[in-house]
Amino acid sequence: MTQRNLATSLTVLGLAAGLTAGGAALAVEDATVIELTQVGCQFIESENGVDHMYMPKSEKDCVKINTDTGDARLAKANVIELKPGKYVFRVTNKNVPYELGFWLREHDYNWKNPVHKVSKISVSGGGLVLGKTQDYEVTLKPGEYVYSCPLNPTPNYKLVVKG
Questions:
Q1: What is the CATH number of the domain that holds 144?
Q2: 13-56: per-residue pLDDT in tens?
Q3: What is the mean pLDDT of residues 86-95?
Q4: 23 lies in which domain range?
Q5: pTM
Q6: At 45, is the secondary structure helix, strand, or coil?
Q7: Nearest to 10 by CA among 161, 19, 1
Q8: Dihedral, CA atoms, 85, 141, 109, 8, nearest 10 degrees?
Q9: In Å, how far from its chain's centre is CA 33?
């Protein structure tokens, strides 16, 4: 997969040169807010602002779509690059007719490994019904991460924290 520097998407995310008025990143109680919008089988901001207009009725629809298109989409996707610190990922279910979630974790996190549950970074949650926005707070240290939605199966988008 080709990794893109996030310079292009920093504008999309509103993070260019720190915080920008009217952008998608805001300072909130010593945290930076990163806004992400979920639509069918994808996060819009992660795919260069492109909404592929997938209209899944269930998780199975996204599994098929991502089997067919996921690798090609990830090859073009933005890799979010951040500095270590406290972040709030503000995730919105824009138009998916079933409950969604969000999961950000270290790239090698294995939920079946009990040691990882206490030694690695992972933040997740569900409850994102149609039209709902929810915040996920996390403190990130240098390293590689992935984020996705396991309920509206999306590709595992990359996030890199450089100190």
A1: 2.60.40.420
A2: 333 323 333 334 455 678 999 999 999 999 999 999 999 999 99
A3: 97
A4: 7-161
A5: 0.82
A6: helix
A7: 19
A8: 70
A9: 12
